[in-house]
Amino acid sequence: MKKIIYIAGLGHSGSTILDMALGCHPEIVGLGEIYAVFNKKNQKALFEESTCSCGKKGVDCDFWKNLRKISSSDKTVEEKYRLLIDVFNEKYGNEMILLDSSKNSYPYLQFLNKEYDLRVIYLTRDYRSWVYSRFTRTRKPMLFFIFRWYFENKKLLYMLKKYGVKINYIGYEELAMYPELILKKICKFIDVDFSKDLLFPDNTKSHIINGNISRVDKDKRKGFFYDFRWMTSGRLALLSSLFAVFNRFNKKLVYSNISRTNKDDFHIFGNKKKDILSKKHNE
Q1: 170-197 pLDDT, tens digit each
Q2: Structural domain containing residue 167
Q3: For a surface tag, which of 74, 229, 243, 270 has the fewest beta carbons within 10 Å of its beta carbon?
Q4: What CATH number is attached to the domain comprising 271?
Q5: How many domains in the chain?
């Protein structure tokens, strides 16, 4: 059964860079936000004006140039997806894993889960970082974005669980700070061998024509970076101290891989590794 990876989560949570990183794996090709490409209203903007992560416009991209007729047709999303998979298999082979980073809980996930081996990576960014990013971009109240982060994640998780899909929870903070450790966990979830190529997103095979502009940002494509600016906001610090429920939910989604590990044994900084090295080297 063909394997499909789906990155779910809110926008602006790091899905584009994760898509590109996984697209460096010899067995995976990412296609960005497939659902958006199937939207007939986006055709001119995506295929003629947007630059793919491969560096070419959509009409010239080695993959997407063959999909415009399918994308702009009146077929259902499920029908378009089947045709897309046919084109994908013809180009890359039946064993190559397709990666879709559309993020939302679209109904077509039920079809994918029924007919294919669907694995969902639920990517979440710490709400304080996400809120600060949205605030600096729009100047809307931080409180508005705090509630939005909470309730949109709740709704998305409810729908994914309703669909009965396999979910692996990943925090963007974990990924940015411990990329090799977290990417190894993702590879284990996908059932592929880890490759150090994943640490260099700039070398991706992914074809992303819709998504965050980081797909064509030469600096951001080089690796995993973290925006710490939210830590300088006194207003955000005060607001976040008032929401114990949100903080618990944040810990569950964003720091689950660290929380599940005994903090004394945690990779690099834990006591377990320190004790092993001390005994080995007689320190």
Answers
A1: 999 999 999 999 999 999 999 999 999 9
A2: 3-281
A3: 74
A4: 3.40.50
A5: 1
State how far the alpha carbon of 115 is from the alpha carbons of 20, 85, 140, 207, 242, in Å.
25, 12, 42, 24, 45
pLDDT band, very low/low/confident/very high, at 42 (cuts 50, 70, 90): confident
What pLDDT is stored for residue 264 in this prediction?
67
